[in-house]
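At this stage, I put together a protein sequence along with its fold in token form, as given directly below:
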Amino acid sequence: MIAARVPVLPRWGRVAMHLSLRSLADITALRRLALGVAFCFVYVLVDASTHLLADALRANAPWYPQPALAVALLVVGGIGYVPAVFAAVLLAGALTPLPGLSAWGVAISSAGAAACYCAAGWAIARWTHWSARDVGLRDLTIFTIVALFTGVVVTLVFGIAGFASGLRFGAGLTRLIRQLAIGNVVGLVVAGPLLLQLAAGAWRPWFATPGVRRTALRDLLVFLVALAALLLVVFGLKPFDEFRLFYLMFLPMIAVAMRYGLAGAALALPVVQIGLIVALAVFATRATTAFEFQILMLALALTSLYLGAASSERERAAERLAQGERELREQREALNDAQRTASTAELAAAVAHDLNQPLSAIGTYARACRLLVERGDADHAELLRVLGQLSAESQRAGQYVRRMREFFRSGAMRDERIDVKRLIERAHAHLRDRLQRESIAWSESIAPDLPPARGDAVQMGAVLDNLFANACDALHDTRGERAIHVSVARVAGAGHPLLRICVQDTGPGVAADVREQLFKPLATSKPHGMGLGLALSRSIAERLGGALWFDAGQAHTTFCLDLPADE
């Protein structure tokens, strides 16, 4: 084994590389630090706004979006932002502590809440695809379960801290638990999908082209107008109880979710949440209104998100189906091209193989004419006979080329009534001189009253020419009996009658190991053979609705050609 020689950088090169990597690491660390500081600032600001909102509504804070900020940061950025999450939660707890908690209670509850947010971010990043655009129903279900579990655990942590701080059930502790339970869950469910879809760039297709961008902005404007009108009717005019009228809010959300999928629902939900808070701040009079409406808001959020996720999955499935259809069309076109190429190659091979016989005959007759002319005393009738055979072979070659070209170009085959006896006579005539020259005996046994065959006479003739020529080739070096026997009989086929033409010769036979390769292209036992004759003949026979096969049960070499009978 030869070890690979690794080039060694000079000392100044290693120092430069080390400094470059260290600089890159420093830049990454500075960027992470800057983002962590910005997150802490935003988190504390949002946390303070929830307390101001609670005072404005004279009730429990109805919405805690800051857990969604922490979870989204960890899902997108990774566990490297865990210190920033702990710092932000502890700082917010110290600056705006919940009423009734001691200093130790604030520290313990804040650390516990931060740990829950980190666990939630890790779970969502580990088991879902929220960091990408292809969010499905499974991902949404896991996200919802994690959000509910996080809300419950955070509530327990703060409840234990409040109980340790002296709060008791029935007064401050009950209010604290209810406030945290609904605030955290609604905050995660409403704001979390928005932040995660923003980070994944789910809205980029809306701004890909001017037409799509104008449509999206128009629909957003219509949604805002419809939302403002519904909020005014539900909380301002109050023709009925506002809790029953709140279900009207489902109508625009369903429309957005079905039209724009999960990304549209995630964008619309915070808008509805903000509109609800504003309506409660302006029109609400009861302290419990915020909590009760947030329960309805949670139901609206889950319904909209699931409808949006289902719509997005359906759209992606339609895109995959369209992509599959495009690929299928491309593959079909490629297959057609390959078939045309293969047909061209098969045509070339067929022409090269089957024109060999008529061209050889043309050459033989031409030489015979020349010899007759050179003798000077040639019989005029004999010369005309040879010239007639030369002309017939020339016509036969031209007719075969035209018919094969027509078939490979359009796939069409002529459907003719063919007299099988005359077809065999013509094929026999093509080989008569060779049979006489090589002393090969020829015999026929044709059953009487045979119906005509259906198919292309030229291509049938080409198959018979090939079978007869193969029989002659097999007898070329045979020292014993040299004979070819052709028999024709009517047999029952699968659904229609057949005419079976059997060509038998007394040659050496076909070896057992060669029989399996007989009809495969390029398989031949002849020294100068192309290995195409039987393969092309079987292909033509099958196109004609028949078959070509080797009868291994006969004492002598026998090939059988089945042709459809015209009855």
Notes: Residues 1-9 have pLDDT under 50 and may be disordered.
